[in-house]
Each structure stands twice: as C-alpha cells, then as structure tokens.
UniProtKB/TrEMBL annotation:
Protein name: 3-hydroxybutyryl-CoA dehydrogenase
Binding site for NAD(+): 16-21, 40, 99, 104, 126, 150, 281
The species this protein was found in: Coemansia erecta
One Pfam family linked to the record: 3HCDH_N
PANTHER family recorded: 3-HYDROXYACYL-COA DEHYDROGENASE FAMILY PROTEIN (PTHR48075), 3-HYDROXYBUTYRYL-COA DEHYDROGENASE (PTHR48075:SF5)
InterPro entries to which the protein is assigned, alphabetical: 3-OHacyl-CoA_DH, 3-OHacyl-CoA_DH_CS, 3-OHacyl-CoA_DH_NAD-bd, 3HC_DH_C, 6-PGluconate_DH-like_C_sf, 6PGD_dom2, NAD(P)-bd_dom_sf
Pathway: Lipid metabolism; fatty acid beta-oxidation
Example GO BP: fatty acid metabolic process
C-alpha cells in the first residue's frame, strides 16, 4: 500500500461529537499527538461527548496506561467550538455526523469555504458514496473516506476509501495519519457499505429477521453467535451498541444503491427506529439499558 507523510499535519478538526467523533478525536490527540478541535452545533452533545472523553482519560491513568501529566497534556490539546465558521484552520478534518448525505454534502461545502484549499477532508461515513460527498467540496481531490470502527479507541481497523476524484497525495497522507493514530488500514473501492458494512449489516439485519420470524429469542440468537462463532457480542447486542438508526440508514443505502431485495431492511428494525428505540444511546433497543 502507498505510504506518504502526515508529518505536516499538526492539527485536526472533528465535525460531530457523537460516539464516533469523540473516539476519533481522542485517538488523534492521545496517540498521534495532534491538536484536536471538536465542532458540534448541539451544546448538550458536545458536553456529553467531552465528559465521556474525560472519563476514558481518567480510566487510562487508573489503569497505568498514562500518567496524570500525560492526561493533562492530552486535554490541553483538545478544544471545541459550536460552528464551522468558528473553526481553526487545520490540516486535516474528519467529519463524523449522522448518515445523511445532504447534511454531509452541506458540511463539505462549508468546510471548503472556510479552510485552506490544501486541507484534507475525510468522512467517517459507513456507507455513503465518497465520490458523491466529494463533489460538494471545492477540491474533491482532497476528500477521502476514513471509516473508523466503534469503539474507536479499542478497535484497530480503519477502512480507507478513495473516491473517484481522490488524489494519490491525499490517499498517501491519510494512510500515514491512520498509522500514526495506531490503526491498521484496509482499502476498499467506493461502493455502498465498503467492506465492513457490506458484510456486517446484512448479518445484523438477518438476525433481526430471525427474531421477527419468532425463530428464537433475542438471548438465544445472541448467545448462538457469541459462543458458537466466538464473536465478542451477539448481533442484536451489537446492533444496539452501533445504534439501530445507524443500522437502518446503512441498510437503506445498501438496498437503494445495490437494488437487490436481499438488502431490504427488516420490518422490525424500521419499527424500532420509528418508536425511538435506538439501542444503548436511547436507553432501549432490543435490550433495556435504563
Ligand atoms: N469507547 C471507548 N472504550 C470502550 C467503549 C467505548 N464506547 N466501550 C468499551 N470500551 C473499552 C472498555 O473501556 C474496556 O477498556 P479497558 O480494557 O481499557 O478497560 C474495553 O473496551 C473492553 O471493554 P469491556 O471489558 O467493558 O467489555 P468487552 O470485553 O465486552 O469489550 C467491546 C467491549 C470492545 C465493545 C467488545 O464487546 C467488542 O469488540 N464488541 C464488538 C465491537 C464491534 O464489532 N465493533 C464494530 C462495530 S461496526 C462499526 O463500527 C462500523 C459501522 O460503520 C457501523
């Protein structure tokens, strides 16, 4: 795989302070030692996200993985603002907002207006076309997919997805930066779901259909895959952990873009999302978290 240099990248902005954005920013600040600025227009989300980040750092000290001084140093590299217009001029941006193509395109257009033209704009989308997101930016050659896995501080993989317009230099710098963040990379063509979600989401969807058809209880579906296939979590627990709204959004992209009925989202998945049962983050999904 091509390697380039991310040495000139000293700072990163993360747009979206949800569970993915916070994890990405934490790893960038702690492992790659970048200055990290979070951008989120929702003050409650920002506060919750930064509180979670603090907790993870405190746990690192408690477990002897870093000293109190290192924790303060990481914290000093982290800041936040509530809009793109207030952002610092940085060398690298990772967008990690919800899976909504129009929202992402709007953000990429705004980032292009605000930032120097050589800033690399990465999207953490889990299924949307990088090429389509890139076409909203002033310099689509600087746009790339950088798909982290949840929980970002724990999972070692980042999928890298060049769009049709992505330059070799953007790809090389992004691969290098992912490595500096301590991650292993794989590379995928820009196709719906890339590698991870092309495989994972139909599996989760099928588990939901298995529940919907009354084939087994949720506990037995999860236990079968946890103990029978040595997965760390069963598929329904994993769906709750990822967020049922995210799972549904990804299945909808696979279904509409690939046009095959095998990707049709489970009726029960749609129902749960309609009810606001989104998994861990809403306190209820297939399981109760209250
Ligand atoms: N953020 C940061 N760290 C977290 C975390 C989170 N949200 N959740 C758990 N962790 C950490 C814990 O703090 C713990 O760290 P320490 O060892 O330092 O204490 C470590 O993970 C292990 O946690 P636990 O001991 O509490 O529990 P566990 O052994 O069951 O592990 C897990 C938890 C790592 C989440 C594990 O269950 C697992 O690997 N699950 C599968 C995760 C997975 O498949 N992720 C991919 C999802 S798909 C995706 O992300 C792509 C997409 O586009 C949808």
């Amino acid at each position: 795989m091509t390697t380039g240099s991310a040495n000139s990248i000293k700072s990163m902005c993360v747009v979206g302070a949800g569970q993915m954005g916070i994890g990405i920013g934490l790893v960038a600040a702690r492992v790659a030692k970048l200055n990290v600025q979070f951008v989120d227009s929702n003050p409650a989300q920002l506060e919750k996200g930064l509180g979670f980040l603090d907790k993870l750092l405190v746990k690192d000290v408690a477990k002897g993985r870093c000293t109190e001084d290192e924790r303060s140093e990481v914290k000093s590299r982290i800041s936040s603002v509530s809009s793109i217009s207030e952002m610092n001029k940085v060398g690298f941006v990772v967008e990690a907002v919800s899976e909504n193509v129009e929202l992402k395109r709007k953000i990429f257009a705004e980032l292009s207006e605000k930032l120097p033209s050589d800033t690399i704009l990465a999207t953490n989308t889990s299924s949307i076309s990088i090429t389509k997101i890139a076409s909203a930016a002033r310099k689509p050659e600087n746009v790339i997919g950088m798909h982290f896995m949840n929980p970002v501080p724990v999972m070692r993989l980042v999928e890298i997805i060049p769009g049709l317009q992505t330059s070799k230099a953007t790809l090389a710098t992004t691969l290098d930066l992912a490595q500096k963040m301590g991650k292993v990379t794989t590379m995928s063509q820009d196709v719906p779901g890339f590698i991870a979600n092309r495989l994972l989401m139909p599996y989760i969807n099928e588990a939901i259909i298995t529940l919907q058809e009354g084939i087994a209880t949720k506990e037995d579906i999860d236990t079968t895959m946890k103990l029978g296939a040595n997965n760390p979590m069963g598929p329904l627990t994993l769906a709750d952990f990822i967020g049922l709204d995210t799972c549904l959004a990804i299945m909808k992209v696979l279904h509409s873009e690939l046009g095959d009925s095998k990707y049709r989202p489970a009726v029960l998945l749609q129902k749960y999302v309609d009810a606001g049962w989104l998994g861990v983050k809403s306190g209820r999904g297939f399981y109760d978290y209250t």
